[in-house]
Amino acid sequence: MPEAARTQAEAIRAQMMKGSFDIFKGELKDNTGKVVIPGGKVLRQTDLELESMNYLVDGVIGKA
Q1: What pLDDT sits at residue 17?
Q2: pTM, rounded to two decimals
């Protein structure tokens, strides 16, 4: 991995661990068209809601 990519990845990892990096930002739909994260809502690495995700996002073929 190039050093620039490693540096960027480590910086994002540090933001995630501090809870200051947005993992998901709504509006987000599952692969059936249902809104699973409403518009304006933000989920970060530290949000417990991520541990209960039971859907596939729009564009992914399959069933959860």
Answers
A1: 85
A2: 0.67
